[in-house]
Amino acid sequence: MNHIKNQEDHAAHTHNFLEIAFLLGGSTRHRTIRGENLCRAGKVIVVPPGAWHAYSECDQLEIVNCLLSPRMLARELAWLRNEPGFSFLFETPENGLAQEVRIFDLHGGGLERVKEGLGRLEEAYVGGSSSVSVTGWVLLVLEILRDSAKTPDEKGKELARRHPAVSRGLQLLATRMGEDWSLDQLAEELNLNPSYLVRLFQKEIGHSPMKLLAAVRAEEAANLLLGTDARVGEIGERVGWSDPKRFAENFRRHFGMKASEYRKRMLGVFEE
């Protein structure tokens, strides 16, 4: 946890934790691989592990960052998976693979309640209180967030209804993204007819498996372009596009520009 009362512009920010950023005052332009949003006090930004994000044009920005480790989510907070309104802590977005930054608005006096809860959490954290005490205040802050921001729980219901083959397919593509997948190979892994597999993905995800994989690879490449100094060709290989031409075509199709141009444009604002 950290409390910054005059946050400066900050780029190339990735981490291995789930970050929940509470904007308590001022304003900023919050940037992700998909663009930017003007954010003011009362916004809450939820950043999953590995997702690039940045702040620019900060104006008297006061922010509290709560960093929840994978271990904490898997142990102390694991039971929240089954609680209404907390699925945003564990979910992936609509396509089931890419890590999406989400922004919530606090309503009905929620900002003041969050400030009070964060103040108690900060006292416990900085004061060296027991892990039980700190976890208790974390839960209180999360409850305030759920109630004030009206965090949706549709995702948890959707995941519960998802076809097992689709869930397994998403897992395979996520954990073995760098492999040279084909539709036939994925269908064989899942013991399904390729045409039937496409219909399942279209129905539940909205895209065919290969179109989905291309989008996820492009977004992972974008995270690497902004969060690392790796060469463009190296990034293509890491996400499963070892052929530079194929990488260039797919990245341009998704983001509308070359990978090198994307990196320059997105990071250029922090070099001025």
Automatic annotation (TrEMBL):
* PROSITE patterns the UniProt entry points to: HTH_ARAC_FAMILY_2
Q: What keywords is this UniProt entry annotated with? A: DNA-binding, Transcription, Transcription regulation
Q: Determine the domain of life of the protein's source.
A: Bacteria
What is the scientific name of the source organism? Answer: Puniceicoccus vermicola
List the SMART domains.
HTH_ARAC
Full protein name: AraC family transcriptional regulator
Determine if Transcription is one of this entry's keywords.
yes
Q: Which PANTHER family match?
A: HTH-TYPE TRANSCRIPTIONAL ACTIVATOR RHAS-RELATED
Picking any one GO molecular function of the record gives:
DNA-binding transcription factor activity
Q: HTH araC/xylS-type domain: which residues?
A: 167-265
